[in-house]
Amino acid sequence: MIGCIWLFFLSCGNTSPSKVAEQDSLRIDSITTHKITLLFAGDLMQHITQIHAAKTKDGYDYSTYFKYIKDEIQKADLAIANLEVTLGGKPYTGYPTFSAPDEYLFAIKDAGFDVLITANNHILDKGKKGLERTTLMLDSFQIYHAGSYSDSLERVQRYPLLIEKNGFRISFLNYTYGTNGLEPTKPNIVNYMDKETMAKDILTAKSQQPDVIIACMHWGDEYVSLPNKEQKEWADWLFSQGVTHIIGSHPHVVQPLEMRIDSITGNQNILVYSLGNFISNMHRRKTDGGILFKMELTKTNLIYVSDCGYSLVWTARKEGKRKNRTLIPVNFPADSLSKKEYDAMEVFIKDTRALFKKHHKGIGEYTFY
Predict the structure, then answer these.
(1) Is pLDDT above 60 for 25?
(2) What is the pTM of this model?
(3) 127, 185 Cβ separation under 8 angstroms
């Protein structure tokens, strides 16, 4: 339990102690309690070898991807991930210009994801068609999304993304450091990291009267396990502007997490510098896994983080001709993996736990399988 709330009751006059206790009990009972659980996953990628492995005579099959973690995703009230591909249609392509089959989105939806963020360095890989078709497909699958827009009117109408659930109002923001040197084709819009624009967006988010504001940031140095100076400065600035929690992506490796508590206000701020890869074809050291980050919010007369934690997830590249991918919880039975798979997963686990032991603050690990 990482959040707590202290309730103080003051009494005056001639009321007896027993009567005060009775009144205090009534006050506590009258407070409505709401809870919501949010689950964040890292980069949903689709390299060409993944596309080839998923190919069938009738289309593409991604049923292996999420089968061991699907229950954990669906337990969350809201599950959020970074969609680091476009859905630009055929021809389907991998790095450096991603366009994934529509069946991939079906599998993501079926796994239980509710929100996909799209402001990342690959959203313009297929130009205007790729951005607009991605938006169209997300809408057709009834998946909430934020980060890129067909035009300014759509952005005004849909951003910041406000989701109301379980008695909560949550505003989501999403920005990227860049788009690999590509620029949006007018009138398309991608949310870039620009303080003037972001400050206005945060004010707009506040006008939505949310319980929390969550900024999903695409930032940092690829393959580097510690945040750079710019990430730290951006995080401090976002919190100073009123953002409640920050969730990061892009480095393709896990970076530290922090629970910050303001010594004056008592406000809690979660900072996840990078969730790492979720599923991809990357298999160099530290890129073959990532974390699921779970956060439970509670609202009484205050709003606070009542619980949070991270769980390590590793991507198995199944042996054989097709080598399809499967996400594996780190407490998966060892005898269900080959020795090669188990040894590779152990390297990822040891690397990540060593990093967190040294650098992360106030957030623990949990397992779910």
Answers:
(1) no
(2) 0.90
(3) yes
